[in-house]
Design goal:
By secondary structure, the protein is α/β, with parallel strands linked by helices. It is built from 17 helices and 17 strands. The strands form 4 sheets. A 7-stranded mixed β-sheet has the order 12-11-10-9-13-14-17, with helices on both faces. A hairpin with a 2-residue loop joins β15 and β16. The longest helix has 17 residues.
């Protein structure tokens, strides 16, 4: 089949195949090469898509399908698939952490499922060229021919979903050390919700870094990331150009923001410090779309460091679309733009006005930005009894709740417990966070970060 020409676009395929491929693009956000190749024959394409859509109605139990999805995702290095099916495995198929870990390593603690997972792993690794012993083993475990065919088809299906490269489509320098990237990530763009984040791998042997989704376009199949170059990996990402490819992006991860309609006379307040504005943007937009009044307090160090606030930029576009439903207040540390001081200055004015029975009652506050800023906002709002949420992208490794690296100490009913920022958050009740215990974690690896930057020539 490799010697058969693959049409470059949907328009290059036979006319009868185009509506079928349009459905594929709508469902997956992209048309994988294999689909365009099969589209040379509209009849073959129609038959293949029928099989593709019917797999979820087959003879394999849902937990087995998720186990197969996990091992194939691990083999193919599909970060998104791995994260998505870890979530589905836990919450839909009811697989525990130990079973998911075993599945990712090509096994299962259930004897029959173990045979299916091992067989699917062989199919994915050998690209379908399995031996007689492999086939005999899965049959001895109790699987019939129909189920084995579904295993093969499932392995192929999840391999196809992993085929879209994370190519940088657009790059814009917002500030000398802050870069906005538009990246091809169709499956993430299709499933993203306000408040979620992704985990980015810049190069095969690199580290994974969490980045909150700043925007996305499901139809175009792209996501927007705003990256501040602080450590080795973020500086490496910011040095990439249009056409470069990130090794992998996992997501969308984390719990989406809890959205609900508030009273018409109330307001939802967002405090965004510097690069906290991009992650605030989609949550504020979602609230506006829900019909809520939003007060955005965006703080910058000075007028020289502004972004997204000029004419035709994202904040201006929100104001143009929603009018009086959005109030925007700017602050700067040096007073060169907006109100002089931190975001807490106008926030205190709003809280004090509420105490006097003036202004819109604050329904809740969401704070995103530097850790010390979020703590300051939390400390300010607590005596007023204003519900406050902090979005935490703390130290994360696995981002699926299995490693424990992002544990956040919180007080619930007087008892200190720990929550995962990656799966319980990233948004957590800021008044419950034990900030004295949490904040020192951000400085744990400062010396290692500096050594890494020196080693890689970033200082």
């Amino acid at each position: 089949m490799s010697r058969i020409q693959t049409p470059a676009t949907i328009d290059d395929t036979p006319e009868a195949s185009r509506p079928l491929l349009a459905v594929v693009k709508k469902q997956l956000g992209v048309v994988p090469n294999m689909f365009r190749l099969i589209a040379n024959s509209p009849a073959a394409l129609e038959g293949y898509l029928g099989l593709f859509g019917a797999l979820n109605k087959g003879a394999l139990p849902a937990p087995t399908r998720e186990r197969i999805a996990l091992v194939v995702a691990e083999i193919n290095g599909c970060s998104y698939c791995l994260s998505a099916h870890t979530y589905l495995g836990k919450n839909v198929a009811k697989l525990d952490d130990a079973e998911i870990s075993a599945n990712r390593n090509g096994a299962s603690m259930d004897p029959k499922a173990d045979a299916a997972v091992r067989f699917a792993a062989k199919v994915a690794q050998a690209r379908g060229h399995v031996g007689e012993d492999d086939l005999r083993a899965v049959k001895l475990a109790g699987y019939d021919d129909a189920q084995i065919i579904e295993m093969v088809a499932g392995a192929k299906r999840f391999t196809d979903l992993a085929s879209a490269p994370n190519t940088i489509i657009e790059r814009r320098e917002l500030q000398p050390n802050i870069i906005e990237l538009t990246v091809n990530a169709p499956v993430i763009a299709k499933n993203a919700q306000a408040g979620q984040f992704v985990r980015v791998l810049a190069e095969p042997q690199g580290e994974l870094v969490p980045l909150t989704l700043a925007d996305w376009d499901a139809e175009a199949g792209t996501i927007v990331l705003v990256v501040q170059g602080m450590g080795t990996t973020s500086k490496m990402i910011n040095a990439m150009k249009v056409g470069d490819r990130l090794e992998g992006i996992a997501g969308p991860l984390g719990q989406p923001s809890e959205l609900h309609k508030i009273a018409d006379d109330q307001t939802v307040v967002f405090t965004a410090g510097g690069v906290g504005l991009p992650p605030v943007y989609p949550i504020a937009r979602a609230n506006l779309q829900l019909g809520n009044h939003v007060t955005l307090i965006a703080g910058f160090r000075s007028a020289d460091l502004l972004f997204w606030v000029g004419e035709g930029e994202r904040v201006d576009e929100l104001q143009a679309e929603f009018g009086d439903q959005l109030e925007v207040i700017y602050t700067s540390n040096d007073g060169s733009f907006g109100i002089e001081g931190f975001v807490t200055v106008p926030l205190k004015d709003l809280l004090d006005a509420n105490q006097r029975g003036e202004g819109r009652p604050i329904a809740e506050v969401t704070t995103i930005g530097p850790p010390m800023m979020m703590r300051s906002v939390s400390d300010l709002t607590k005596p007023y009894g204003a519900k406050t949420v902090a979005s935490l992208n703390s130290i994360m490794v696995d981002a699926t709740g299995m490693c424990g690296a992002c544990m956040v100490p919180v007080l619930i009913d007087g008892k200190l417990i720990r929550k995962h920022a990656c799966i319980d958050g990233p948004e957590l009740d800021s008044h419950a966070i034990d900030w004295d215990k949490f904040l020192p974690r951000f400085n744990l690896f400062k010396s290692q970060e500096q050594q890494s930057k020196v080693k890689h020539g970033w200082v």
